[in-house]
Amino acid sequence: MITALMLAAAVSFPAALALPADCDLEAPHGRDGCTRAAVDALPMNAIQAVGTHNSYKLAIPAAEMALLSAMAPDMARTLDYAHAPLTEQLEAGARQLEIDVLNDPDPGRYADPLARRLVPAAEPYDLEPLRRPGLKVLHVQDVDYRSSCPLFVECLAQVAAWSRANPDHAPLLILMNLKEGAALPAAGAVTPAPFDAAAMDLIDAEIRSVFPAEALITPDLVRGEAATLRAAVAAGGWPSLGEARGRVMFALDAPRAQVDLYRGPRPSLEGLVLFVNIEEDEDASAYITLNSPAEQAERIAAAVAAGLIVRTRADADTVEARANDPARRDAAFASGAQYISTDYMTPDLRFSDFQVVLPHDAAARLNPRQGLIESSDETVQAGGRSE
């Protein structure tokens, strides 16, 4: 089944659209082979871009980190990273963001974090937004609660404002994780509120309250007249890059139970905003998260060839940055995944100069797996600021 879809996708890109490998897909073009007309004729899934993981996350203050390191050193090690505000990341070239959302049906559940109670002299942080109605954005309740945009609608508003000011940007992918489950194993810790059907509806409602329909890339838009979303992407149903410029695509990167609750009785996500992380042979298949680019290289390549949009990770849990190890990063770029997530678009020099960016400071380039690149020489340079 995948083989047939791969063949269909492989022949869906006309040879006439072949472009030089070093085209920056957002830059004004004029030189031979890199004209805006040729670039904009590409399907939007023919790109490769870099983005960030837990994009809203602020650093844990030193005093709180010292307490966490004493109580849970392994956890503290993995949480020792942070990001600039969303607008700064987008300005720097991030074209994928990840936002963790918590349900808060009785506002204020997360407004008195345990770490703050245990270390009252920690750096100031405004907890008032966590008392307002709406979905909340933070990483780990009680210990890693500092966010550059604590309210989901605030995060969305920042992205929307930047997008309106930069209408030629490559399509943005915003991943969403829905945080629920048990409290941390400590006295006084809070239990996250579960996501029920009403909370799932609230996700779409908050997104639509900020983004007009014409700013979104939705499952309905991609499916068009096809019988299923999967059939549409196999037949080349993604908008062209020209049509997708200035637009945002949302995807639910979540366990199957959450996906099924969000999807409900809509086999191809009819009427919904989010794409979902689901198996490649299902009707709703158009997006998939495959976070291990070396171990899952064949599956990523097959998914890309079948028309899916794939997100993978170039690093995780501070491991690669501490070791200055480029292996996972290089595998991510070579995999052909369209969106590559990192915690290190900017190096953390406490650890090393490990960094994940596209060559020549490009925000988006041609995907090396789409058969559109005349030379693969650029692939090995991805990850550093090559000149």
Descriptive account of the structure:
- The protein contains 15 helices and 11 strands.
- The strands form 2 sheets. Strands 2, 3, 4, 5, 6 and 7 form a 6-stranded mixed beta sheet that branches.
- Mean pLDDT is 90; it is low at 1-17 and 372-387.
- The chain is an alpha/beta fold.
- Helix 1 packs across helix 13 (297-305) and helix 7 runs parallel beside helix 8.
Offer a quick outline of the entry.
With 387 residues, this protein is of the alpha/beta class. 30% of the residues lie in helices and 12% in strands.
Write the layout of secondary structure elements.
Layout: H1 2-10, H2 36-40, E1 47-52, H3 62-71, H4 73-78, H5 86-91, E2 96-102, H6 114-118, E3 136-137, H7 152-165, E4 172-179, H8 197-210, E5 216-217, H9 219-223, H10 229-234, H11 241-244, E6 248-252, H12 256-263, E7 275-276, E8 287-289, H13 297-305, E9 309-313, H14 319-323, H15 327-335, E10 339-342, E11 364-366
For the record, give the distance between the C-alpha atoms at the N and C termini, rounded to a whole number: 42 Å
Mean pLDDT: 90
Radius of gyration: 21 Å
Helix content: 25-40%
Low-pLDDT stretches are 1-17, 372-387
- The portion of residues forming beta strands comes to 5-15%
- Using the alpha-carbon principal axes, give the shape: globular
* Strands, total number: 11
Number of helices: 15
Task: List descriptors.
alpha/beta, 387 residues, disordered N terminus
